[in-house]
Amino acid sequence: MDYPQIIDVHSHIYPKKIAERAIQNISNFYNVPMQNTKGTSDDLLESGGEIGVKKFVVHSTATVVGQVKSINDFIAAEIKSHKEFIGYATLHPDMTEEEAFIEVERIKKLGLKGIKLHADFQRFDIDEPRAENLYRAINGTLPVLFHTGDDRFDYSSPERLARAAKKFPNMLCIAAHFGGYCRWSEIDAYDGLDNVYFDTCSSLFKLPDLMAKDIMNHLGHDRFMFGCDFPMWRHKEEVERFLKLQLGDAINENVLANNAVRILGIQP
Fold first, then answer.
1. Domain hosting residue 259, numbered range
2. Over the stretch 106-141, which tens digit does the pLDDT of each residue have?
């Protein structure tokens, strides 16, 4: 099968010494069997190479403040070694605004192009004061990729992200998982917000096709970008799930690559 041009805006990588343990922890957290037993850069490139993925946004999440700098240094080293990678940094809500500002300035110098926050792993509400310290430190200078949704928790609900996006209108927000994993009935919270965009990852294995199409129609196809959520899934599997929606060539090409070029400035 010939695939359109593809940019993956949501994948995770880990150092070799902790990759298998990290993957097992994620599998346990979501109670979803992982499609990959490894999660290194080489494994990511192998998965994406099966269908010719051109670029990958890569990141990892700090669960304590002490991990922030080492993770950001790791991601920075990986983007230097792999021209296919665009690196997103991590921050942690227990950082003060000044600490976060200093780290944001450092990660820009490292060549990282965005921030990934996972409120469920990091245990903070997206719209709480600690999070707002991070948003003020970022000050609209980098896009922020948010894990959103989970019916077991309320940390990252669509309503909370919408509230934060309204309060910080200069913050470019990417709401992962079709705007809210397992909370897709709440996507109306994003209505009228032109600083919130979406990715497709880790949703289509659970979302009925008709519901996925309805969500994209409601929020706008021009606001969606393809994400794999590697190592949760392999790229071939995720792209074929997306193409099964039969949205048409023009929309497919936009979601799989063109929107990421336009929204995030990623060049394939």
1. 7-264
2. 999 999 999 999 999 999 999 999 999 999 999 999
HSE of 3 in the Cβ direction (CA atoms, 13 Å)? 23
> For residue 80, is it within any domain?
yes
Residue 152: CATH number of its domain: 3.20.20.140
CA distance linking residue 53 with residue 4, whole number of Å? 9
The answer to whether position 1 is within a domain reads: no
Residues 74 and 60: beta-carbon distance below 8 Å: yes
* Verdict on whether the full-model pTM lies above 0.90: yes
- Spatial CA neighbour of 68 closest among 10, 17, 110, 24: 110
Least confident interval from 15-29, 54-68, 112-126: 15-29
Looking at the structure of the chain, the number of domains it has is 1
Task: Count Cα atoms within 13 angstroms, Cβ side, for 103.
Answer: 27
179, part of any domain = yes
Domain assignment of residue 2, yes or no: no
Average pLDDT over residues 54-61: 97
The four Cα atoms 158, 10, 27, 164 give a dihedral, to 10 degrees, of -20
